[in-house]
Amino acid sequence: MRICMVHNSYGSVSGEEMVVDTVTALLRDNRHEVIPFHRSSGEIPEMRFGRIRAFFNGMYSRSSRESMRRILAVFNPDVVHVHNLYPLISPSILQVCREMGFPVVMTTHNYRLVCPNGLLMHQGRICEKCSHGREWWCFLHNCEKDRFKSLGYALRNYIARSRDFFRKNVTEFVALTEFQRQVLIREGFPKECIHVIPNTISQKAGQESGALGNYVGYAGRISPEKDMPSLMEAARLHRNIAFRAAGAYDRLPQLLETAPDNFEFCGMLKERKLAEFYENCRIIVLCSVCYEGFPSVLAEAMAYGKPVVCSRIGGLAEIVEDGVTGLLFEPGNVTDLAAKIRHLWDRPDLCRQMGRAGREKAGREYSPENYYKRLIAVYEKAIELGPQQPRNN
């Protein structure tokens, strides 16, 4: 099978980029031919009038349409797999795929089809004001803390929705959780063409060491929606427990100045160091106050046999089974978070038991083999259906 993989990366390492790379490698390992159509937001600072061009390209990009047309004509893929299109590629390429007769599968890594900033969040709280065609709230609220950028985000969502770029031109959608699928259905996307495929773990993940571990860990992007202050407060309540956070902290450098003595920011860790980080921690914590898509850290922690303490929000409860593979707490509730951490930390046998259950679940549901079978089934269905008008709900 020939697959054209379309993705606009964010210009810095993120979970989404890692997923795209993992899926591409998985397909190639199974003898499929994959050609990338990639752009990076990291290009914008180097472009002349970069911000202005990104502003307009996010709405409609003639250059991307022509690039897509050339790739399709030369490569003649069986299916086009779309991940992120903003800001340099734009949904306008979907129209080209339809016009030239190529089916499109789109993975929705976040909530950008509903919310311009992709998080369904404003000022640290869940916000759904932009849903059902009210994108103007992104500009009115200045969700990006930059009027120009917020306006661009609002306009590109408005144009994509008003021209029906997604529903008219995407054959099949892939959501990461059932919760995310239901959000899309409420927004008017046809339920029969939305499939749930959780992210897979890296084929190199999951070398269980059997060690109990001597700190509480966090791994991933360090940004406002991850609510690191709550984790730091929990650390202050448990001075005899070490806490470590792995991930780039350039968006919130002030956190380093306010961290308690038992909380260490390790920065971005490369493959081997990150594996050691998982192996040597006792518990992994995720404190998100947004709905999230599918944080890879949860599946990776399970693969390493580590229990997870996680916010009870959005689709996260589908990933972390409360009392089985970890414990859930109310998002933003430091007392609840600290209590769940202490409960696990003081019970080494329970940590091992939940770690084993998590490892079994990761092997059963998030393995590369499972992901591959599910994705190929969606590809085959899209190819069978071909590019067509959306079905009715």
Alpha-carbon distance between the two ends: 30 Å
| Tally of domains | 2
What's the tally of helices? 16
- Name given to the CATH architecture of the largest domain: 3-Layer(aba) Sandwich
Helix content: 40-55%
- Strand arrangement, major sheet: 2-1-3-4-7-8
Shape: globular
CATH superfamily of the largest domain: Glycogen Phosphorylase B
Report the β-strand fraction as a percent range: 15-25%
Which structural class should the secondary elements be placed in? alpha/beta
How is this structure best described in words?
- The chain has 393 residues and is of the alpha/beta class.
- It folds into two domains: 2-200 and 368-385, Glycogen Phosphorylase B (Rossmann fold, 3-Layer(aba) Sandwich); 216-365, 3-Layer(aba) Sandwich (Rossmann fold).
- The chain has 16 helices and 14 strands.
- It has helices spanning 15-29, 50-57, 62-75, 92-99, 136-140, 147-162, 165-169, 178-186, 228-237, 255-258, 271-280, 296-303, 316-319, 334-345, 348-365, 368-385; strands at 2-9, 33-40, 79-82, 104-107, 121-122, 125-126, 172-175, 194-196, 216-219, 243-246, 263-267, 283-286, 308-311, 326-329.
- The strands form three sheets. A six-stranded parallel sheet has the order 2-1-3-4-7-8, sandwiched between helices. A six-stranded parallel sheet has the order 11-10-9-12-13-14, with helices on both faces.
- Strand 12, helix 12 (296-303) and strand 13 form a beta-alpha-beta unit.
- Helix 3 packs parallel to helix 4, helix 9 (228-237) packs across helix 14 and helix 12 (296-303) packs across helix 15.
- The longest helix is centred in the C-terminal third of the chain and has 18 residues, at 348-365.
- The two termini are 30 Å apart.
- The mean pLDDT is 93.
